[in-house]
Amino acid sequence: MKFAVLGPLSLTDGNGSLLPTAPKTRQLLALLLLHANSLVTLETCLQELWGESSPRSAVQSVHTRVFQIRQALAGDLSGRTTEESKRILKTHHQGYSLEVEKGSLDLDVLETHLTKYRRAQSRQDDVGVSTELRAALSLWRGRTLLDIQQGECIQAYATGMEDLRMTVLEQCIEAELRLGMHHRLLSELSTLVSRYPVHENLHAQYMIALYRSGRTVESLRTYHRLRKTLTEELGIEPSHRVRQLQTAVLAKSTELDVVPQDRAVLSMSLMSGR
Hints:
CATH topology of the domain at 2-98: Arc Repressor Mutant, subunit A
Shape: elongated
Order of helices and strands: EEEHEHHHEEHHHHHHHH
C-alpha cells in the first residue's frame, strides 16, 4: 500500500484506490496518517472532527469511521482480510494507531530526501543539495491535504507543511544560483514572484538571476515593483538586505557574480543525477 498526504489524500495499492468515500472518514484517515505509527487519542479524534461542538453520538461515530477505514483497507481489490486490516489500524485503550511500513508514506520519503539534503549541505555539495531538494519538491502534488475537511490539528499540520515547502524551494533555488543555473531559473522565478508578490527572498533571487543573465534593467524593475507593492499594500519599505541588493545591482558589484566552479566536475555530477 502507498499513502500520500502531500496534495490530495491518496491510499492505493497495485489494484487502484482504496480511499473511503465519506468526508469525515477521510478526515480521520488523514489525521491517523499524519501521526502514522503513533497513538492518536480518541480525544484528539473528536477535537479534529468536531472541535468544541461534538455531538452526543461522536464517540460512536469515530468507532464507525474506524470500521469504514478498515473496510477500505480490506476491500475486494486489496486481498486483505478484516483481521489483517485490524493489524494495520490498531485499537488501543485510549485511541488508535495506523501502522505504516517505512517508505510507503510520502512523508517518510520526504524526510529521506531532507536527510540526504542536510548531509550534502554539510559537505557544501550544492549539486547534491539541488538534487535532493528537487526530489523533495516533486512529492507535493498540491497543497497538503487540499481535498480534506480540516479541523484544528490537520489545519496546523498542513500550514506547517506549506511553510516547509516554501523553505525547501528557497534553499533549492539558492543552491542552484550558486551553481550558476540562473538562466534555467528565470521562468520558474518569474512565476513565483507573480504568485507571491510580497515575498522578498523570491524577488531577491529573481533579481540576481536576471542580473546574471545580463538583464540589469529588468532586475531593477523587479525591485521597484516589489517596493511599490510593499509600500502600497503593507505600508513598509523593502528590507535592508533587499535594498543592499538593489545598490549592488546598480553598482554592478562583483559580489553578485557566480563563484567559479569546476565546470567539468559539475557537468558530470548533473548528468549522473547525484
